[in-house]
Specification:
This is Putative NAD(P)H nitroreductase. Helix content is 38%, strand content 15%. The protein has helices spanning 21-29, 45-55, 74-88, 94-99, 101-105, 125-145, 161-166, 196-199; strands spanning 38-39, 67-72, 109-115, 149-153, 174-184. Strands 1, 2, 3, 4 and 5 form a 5-stranded antiparallel sheet that branches.
């Protein structure tokens, strides 16, 4: 485990949660940065290890770990972009499909989260897929905690069977998201947020 994180052991009693102004502020102001605008520096090897460790500390019914994490280096991404560019021509909007590859190419660090559920288990596949989504959200929070900007996106190359094979996605698996991490040149602007009163209600 990274020296940047507290060390814990199986069965160890963990401290009770305490109010944290820094954590509340982080959650209240969390905002994805445009992936195409993310630039170096990205996390160091030790920081990335810590971010992955925090990302994996997510709700997981049945302790199945129904997801995989694949770190894509800039060199590997450049190679993948070369293979993705010709396939953009087959998309519904080829011009846009080609343009959005900048979101994949530019960030200095990308983590591919792959949902890999176990069918037939007592834990429903849907719950296992939700766990993969929780990993994506944890990775965003972890990157933010280390002072980086991040974005969780998919786009067309997460769903085309020809492209998912390029990423090593196996049969029965799905791309849960690409988590792009780096440094944003400009602060992110606030976006519209839902009114909680419109979404939450008391059970009748």
């Amino acid at each position: 485990m990274s020296d940047l994180l507290p060390r814990t052991a199986f069965g160890q009693a963990l401290p009770s949660p305490k109010a944290s102004d820094a954590c509340i502020r982080r959650l209240a102001l969390r905002r994805s940065a445009p992936a195409q605008d993310l630039a170096p520096p990205g996390p160091s090897a030790e920081q990335l290890e810590a971010i992955l460790t925090l990302g994996a500390r997510t709700p997981d019914h049945g302790k199945l770990f129904p997801w995989r994490l694949v770190v894509l280096s800039p060199e590997r991404k450049a190679d993948l972009v070369q293979k993705l560019e010709p396939l953009a021509a087959d998309q519904a909007d080829p011009t846009r499909a080609l343009a959005v590859l900048a979101k994949f190419r530019n960030p200095p660090c990308t983590v591919l989260v792959i949902s890999s559920p176990t069918p037939g288990h007592k834990v429903p596949v849907w719950e296992q897929q939700l766990s993969a989504g929780a990993v994506c959200m944890n990775l965003l929070h972890a990157a933010d905690a280390f002072g980086f900007s991040a974005n969780w996106i998919t786009d067309w190359y997460a769903y085309d069977p020809r492209t998912t094979r390029l990423f090593g996605v196996r049969e029965g698996e799905q791309v849960a998201g690409f988590i792009h991490v780096g440094t944003a040149a400009n602060p992110s602007l606030e976006r519209p947020r839902p009114a909680v009163a419109d979404l939450a209600s008391e059970a009748s």
